[in-house]
User: Fold these one by one.
Assistant:
Number 1:
Amino acid sequence: MQNRVKLPCGLSTGSGPRFNSRRTLVTCSAAFCYNEATHVLEFVPREGSPERWGAYCENCPERRIVPAAEVDAAREQGVRTQGEHFDTTRLPLSDEHWRYREFTDDERAEIDQIKNGELVETYIRPGIFEWQPAGEKQGQQA
């Protein structure tokens, strides 16, 4: 299992160069996926702006997005066969509220900085890691 690390722009990624064999990748934000992150997963609420849920590889099976009608049919089938205790967390994500998109220019620039060693994964406190400029420790210049 890898660390979840936030870019300075706030996008969540997996561990980067210090914690993978290629030493140049920013990995998928899924806990057990070590593929390179290529897209951003967003939740699109009915009102307001989309919320970024992290950087993921394009084919991460945990983040499948399917038409809303398929999700509704699967939910109805699950409730019919398993009753009200049906575990909806195993359903795919509905395209009514979820989407993948490619990185914006700012997000891509930060990914490139990590690949070039300009941003490094930094331990902040237990369970909290951030990408920070190389040579900087917890917000202060070295």
Number 2:
Amino acid sequence: MTDKPSFTQTQIAEAIADPASLVELSGAIELQQQEEEIHDFLKDSPTTKLAELIGKCMAIVDLCDPSKTLEKPNIMMRKFREFTGKDLAIKVEYTASVKEMDGILDEAKTQATRIESAFKNISIHIEGLKAKATELAHNAALGQFIIDHHLNEVEEVQHSLLQRRVANLTAMLTANELAMEQFKLAQKNALMIVHRFEEMQTMVLPSWKSLTMQRDLSRELTPSQGVQVKQIYTNIRSDLNELSVMLS
């Protein structure tokens, strides 16, 4: 807190009379419980499922690398492919892969929606945690004020209790402040991941799908067009990899 806390004479008198009331253990327990609830939420976050689905997308993109179709087979190889039906098999495999990708993306979109909703709602829990921490921080400051200015008015047998509780509460609040920063960062990253996924689904993977479905035409591309195809694929793979790293 940046503002210097102020205390009423009544608050000071009550704290001097009963130092233990400054830091009731129930308040510390409540703070810990609120923090653990957010930890549990983050542990069970839908981002784990989204990460698995992005991994499947990466595997399909690798399998159907459009740049591989730019390698023009010689006459003997073309004859062999026609005889064995390998070209047809590859085409069927690529078509099936595109359909599989569509299914994965539908499921991934569901998970992304869950992430966005959940991490927006986590703000409510963070605000509750912050409110409780502010209350306890005020008590810790009051306790320190008494130690610094009114310790001689506190019963001697209560000195160690007051000093110990203020020190422990201050340490707990420091840890809590760090945790809240991590919670806010996790929220920010999760929403960024959702936006990145939506961008990839809308603008990146359609390029891969187009190249994959038109693989028969790729042998008719000019060298410069072939370079463009390889660059598109490289960009797609890079985007998937970056999103995967963000989810890890």
